[in-house]
Amino acid sequence: MPLDERLLEKLQEIFGEKDVSTRTSELYVYSFDGGIHRRMPDAVVRPRNTVQVQKLVALANEHKIPLVPRGAGTGLVGGAVPIVGGIVVDMQGMKEIKEIRVDGMYAVVEPGVVCDKFNEALKPYGYFIPGPASSEVATLGGMVGHNSSGGFALKYGATRDYVLGLLVVLPNGEVIDVGTRTPVNSGGFQFEKFFCGSEGTLGIFTEIILKIVPKPKARAACVAFFDDLEKTGQCVANIIAQGLVPSQIEIMTGISIKAVNKAKGLGLPECAGMLLIEVDGHPGVV
Fold this sequence. Notes:
Oligomer: single chain
Strand content: 15-25%
Number of strands: 14
Helix content: 25-40%
Largest sheet: 5 strands, antiparallel
Order of helices and strands: HEHEHEEEEHEHHEEHEEEHEHE
CATH topology of the largest domain: Uridine Diphospho-n-acetylenolpyruvylglucosamine Reductase, domain 3
């Protein structure tokens, strides 16, 4: 249901008029993500700092209004869709890279930073973080919220493996700072990992500390074709069993190959199974 005028005025006091929207055309844009779910929010707000988020949570609690934090909306599971209405909290306005510490192998960022732009900022230092297939538009906050992983997950892991610390506004409005700035920490509970994959249900991230890793200097790829799909899968198991961990590995079935050939005209050999493998590392061994 539409928000009443007094509540809208309070939202505008917190965020300013330009960062509060109830226009139908704009609400429609926030009614879906990359998946199949649809629902229009009652309003959209765009925070610029932690204090604004904290005030919003207090206001939402007072009026019993659901809040749905959102990054770029590239997720496929409906995590950014306001299924019961309420207010979508667009975190893309908080997009500052606050600190890059190569000597400490970490960076401090806001949740609206886009993954590829973050990696572009790390490039001069020779560091990176692995991202999902949607890294051109996916935000770091969304990646943490979904514990995203992409083609590099086999070797490099998922987003949770890179989260060192978080600044979080909890559902009760309290702000907590969890985690550390050290790449290796074995002391106490790792509450920062607890929030990874929570999809906004446990709080709203306003600052993220991420581990960064050296970018491999060389990459190489190969393709293998099989007359039996089971043999294709067994080949993957054999590669891993030998202690060889590719940066990416993917199986394509015969049906998938035919579909790609039909759609893209690539002329791939139509076999029972195809294995795509990428390795990375030092130029001398790749």
